[in-house]
Amino acid sequence: MVLISPLHFAWLDGVWDGVFSTQGIMIMLLMAYAGAMWLFLSSAPKVFTVMVSDLEHARQFYEQELRLPVADVPLHYYYNYEQTLGIASMDPLYVPSALSYSSPKRPSPSDGLWYQLKKNTQLHVIGGASKGERNRQRHVCFDRECLEMILLRVQRRQLRYKMRSDRPLNFLVKDYDDRVIEMAEITARP
Length: 190
Description:
Strand content: 15-25%
């Protein structure tokens, strides 16, 4: 038989007072928020970006030749820099000119093309790459893993391709319209 003395109750009363104090509740809320953010970010898809010289040709290549399914823009890409600064709802009169956004068209995260590469891996295709040799279409990427997945897809779809270099990865693909597309890994120079 265990006897509980009044001192035990006094100790428990002090613990409960600490847990349900303003500080205790704030700590519990922060822990819950951290857990929710961890779940949200750990379930977010991995995103690879490929920069292309012609977005419309890229659309045809990825949708018709490689038959990649179109993907939705991941939720974590909807939150832009303005919202993190808290100035999205501020009057432009009070925002310094360096922070104002008076340009006619700002690029948004949803600009470009989005495709599903694997279950939790997406491909974001954006414009901006220069044309390659002989004015060929050029797709460049900083992630070797991304280009390896695209090469695997090219091989599965039995498209004609030619390896130019393994390090950095560089290969040519000929689509059904006989356009040559250069796929190039861009490496950082030391």
